[in-house]
Design a protein that fits this description.
Elements: E1 4-8, H1 13-24, E2 28-32, H2 42-50, E3 55-57, H3 64-73, E4 77-82, H4 89-94, H5 96-117, E5 121-127, H6 151-169, E6 174-180, E7 182-184, H7 203-211, E8 218-221, E9 233-234, E10 236-238, H8 239-254, E11 262-267, E12 273-274, H9 275-286, E13 292-295, H10 310-315, H11 324-337
Parallel strand pairs: 1-2, 1-4, 2-3, 4-5, 5-6, 6-11, 7-10, 8-13
Antiparallel strand pairs: 9-12
Length: about 350
């Protein structure tokens, strides 16, 4: 029998791509998602890609009773990948209580049930936001965490601390926190991709919707940063490369290859790219023009960050493979294909 993995937030952007990679690698998947920022039709799209529709339950993991009832039914879970969280920096500044409630309570409910029902393995969706604005670049896993620039970033730091402390108190539990940089792009089939509900909070869906005529223009938040072109710099990774890192992390836990029972890895490309460079790469790879204008800096944003991925490359035997042009072209193909899909 195939090993079963619970993927929380599995109909979301990163979650859906990870479900595809897990199924392609022989895992059975059960998804829990409250569909607050995704659509149930994603399950059909996953089935078109892999031939298998994942098991699905719709509820909110902040509901302790429903979470426990789910674990009572699922007696054969081998591991959990926890994506389910509110994730927009700007929104978290405006709605901090919502972010603390959703992101912290969902993890604590999950880990309480892991202990009670003896599910030993957890991969956590963390973020480079835990580093704040670092003093030195690129950041390694030993780079000191700083006070977060946003409530969203702070929830990721707190969640990492919860996992570390629970694993320390319960040596039979094992956790891996993957500190993502900036996932973009879409599956090569153009059947799944980033599908924000309402106005996008992330750069790439806003960019592609602007080019598609859905939005008037793209706002570039600041051109007065201390960077070569004045716009903010991030480390943009193809979402499929990121999804593959989760499969590797799960295999590491299940095969007892972890060095400690709580590990942290940077998951990025190792390259810093500015917002204006993103626009140039998109225009080069797609032949489309991006209407944009420079606006004021956005509260909660940092100037620049990108990863040193040496540890993840060597320890996980994983490496991001897609070029920036390939990644942005996949995002555009997804946007184009949305015209023909009933979402």
């Amino acid at each position: 029998m195939n090993k079963k993995v619970l993927v929380t937030g599995g109909t979301g952007f990163i979650g859906s791509h990870t479900v595809v990679e897990l199924q392609n690698n022989g895992f059975d998947v059960v998804i829990v998602d409250n569909l607050s920022n995704s659509k149930v039709e994603v399950l059909d799209q996953i089935e078109k890609i892999t031939g298998t529709k994942p098991e699905f339950e719709c509820f909110d993991l902040t509901d302790r009773q429903k979470t426990r009832a789910f674990f009572e039914k699922q007696s054969n879970l081998e591991a959990i990948i926890h994506f389910a969280a509110s994730k927009a920096v700007g929104e978290s500044v405006e709605k901090p209580l919502m972010y603390y409630h959703n992101n912290l309570n969902s993890l604590m409910n999950l880990m309480e049930c892991m202990q009670e029902f003896e599910v030993k393995n957890l991969v956590f969706s963390s973020s480079c936001t835990v580093y704040g604005q670092p003093d030195q670049l690129p950041v390694t896993e030993q780079t000191p965490r700083k006070e977060a620039e946003s409530p969203y970033g702070n929830t990721k730091s707190i969640c990492e601390d919860i996992i570390r402390d629970v694993c320390k108190a319960n040596p039979s539990l094992k956790g891996i926190a993957l500190r993502y940089f900036n996932p973009i792009g879409a599956h090569e089939s153009a059947l799944i991709g980033e599908l924000p509900l309402g106005v996008p909070n992330n750069l790439i869906p806003f960019l592609t919707q602007t080019v598609a005529g859905i939005r008037k223009e793209l706002s570039v938040f600041g051109d007065d940063y201390n960077t070569p072109d004045g716009s903010a710099i991030r480390d943009y990774i193809h979402v499929v490369d990121l999804a593959k890192a989760h499969v590797v992390a799960i295999a590491r836990l299940l095969n007892d290859q972890n060095k400690t029972n709580c590990e942290f890895f940077n998951v990025g490309t190792g390259n810093g790219v500015s917002v204006l460079e993103i626009i140039n790469s998109f225009e080069r790879s797609t032949g489309e023009k991006v209407p944009h204008r420079i606006t004021d800096r956005r509260e909660g944003d940092i100037e620049q960050i990108y990863a040193d991925t040496t540890f993840a490359n060597e320890e996980l035997k994983w490496k991001a493979e897609s070029t920036l042009d390939e990644t942005l072209l996949s995002a555009w193909k997804w946007q184009e294909n949305l015209k023909t899909m009933e979402f």
